[in-house]
Amino acid sequence: MLNGQVLKSDSDFDKAILFKTEVEVTQDGTLLGNGSVISHSQYTVKMADGYFFKDECEFTVCSVVH
Length: 66
Known about the structure:
The protein has 1 helix and 6 strands. It is mostly beta strands. It has one domain (6-63): SH3 type barrels. A 6-stranded antiparallel beta sheet has the order 1-6-2-3-4-5. Strand 4 and strand 5 (50-53) form a beta hairpin.
């Protein structure tokens, strides 16, 4: 995963969970939260800051932990 990459597919979210990738969540340019993805479903993403809808938010990689 690369810094600035936008998570779109289920495999993107699976990789973010596997590699403990730091993700920033925005909606219409407003920062809603950031952290690691805990889980995801067809419609939502669970993070420590709460649940976010995939179709309403943008999920962007902001750092990768190795």
